[in-house]
Amino acid sequence: MERHKWKLSMYEKAGIVPWKNLIITYNDSQGNINMKIVESEIVNKLL
User: Fold this and answer.
1) What are phi and psi of 20, to 5 degrees?
2) Is 37 exposed, middle or buried (0-12, 13-18, 19+ CB in 10 A)?
3) Which residues, other chains included, contact 38 with Cβ-Cβ below 8 Å and sequence gap of 6+?
4) DSSP state of 17
5) Angle at 14 between CA 11 and CA 40, to 5 degrees
6) CA-to-CA distance for 23 and 5, rounded, in angstroms?
7) For 1-47, how does the pLDDT look when each residue is reduced to its tens digit (9 = 90+)?
8) How far apart (Å, rounded) are the C-alpha atoms in residues 38 and 1?
9) What is residue 6's three-state secondary structure?
10) For residue 2, with 0-12 CB atoms within 10 Å meaning exposed, 13-18 middle and 19 or more buried, which class applies?
């Protein structure tokens, strides 16, 4: 989690902001990602 926070702060210093010009995804405990949710977020927030 600390690395994640650090990485986000580096992105923000470079002008890259979550859900403005960066999509962040997370895997579940088995390493899977639900692409239906990702697609829905893209459609609802970016298009």
Assistant:
1) -100, -55
2) exposed
3) 23, 25
4) -
5) 50
6) 15
7) 899 899 999 999 999 998 788 888 888 999 999 999 889 988 887 77
8) 21
9) helix
10) exposed
In the chain the first and final C-alpha atoms are separated, in Å, by: 30
Positive or negative torsion for Cα 16, 44, 40, 42: negative
Q: What is the pTM of this model?
A: 0.58
Q: In whole angstroms, what is the distance from residue 47 CA to residue 41 CA? A: 9
Which DSSP symbol is given to 28? -
Helix H or strand E encompassing 40:
helix 35-46
Q: Return the closest-CA partner of residue 47 out of 24, 23, 27.
A: 23
pLDDT of residue 14: 96
